[in-house]
Write a structure and sequence with these properties.
The chain contains five helices and six strands; from the N terminus they run E-H-E-E-E-H-E-E-H-H-H. The protein is an alpha+beta fold.
Amino acid sequence: MHSDHLSDLSLDDIPTATPVLVCVVTHPTDFERIRTKGWYRIPVVRTRVSLTVGYLAFYQTAAFGAERWAVRSIAAVRSVDLAYRYELIPDEPRHPRAAMRYYRFALGPLLRLPLAIPSRRLRRVTFIPTTFGQLLTARDIVDLWQPPTAPVWSDVWGAGVNARWKMSVEG
């Protein structure tokens, strides 16, 4: 069974440029699966973002009471595979989406963010591709949609890379 205790990994070990996908968790039973069984599902037909990520972060909806409308935790992605919903949740064989295919993300232990990232205004959140660094600096969910800061090119120019192009631009 999956444990929610921290392993050797801590938030300090995650590089800020690591890709993170913020996912919506609409039911406490789904969050309990993440916490205790170590997996999360995304319908294949609803996936319009890159799934090449190191971590999933979880946005909790109104169903979570006092912890609603915020991102509070992340988990490392260990692997991704495909499965039908009825395989993932066998106790719901007659569910309307039982025959749908899902990406199943095998996850590491949940890690709690130092500060929750709230949605100060009600927004319809689905998936937000972001980075770990943006998760650490965001003060509102809207901050996660912002592109990361532009790369610092001075180090590249200082190393002489593209020096000919730089000279033609400057001179």
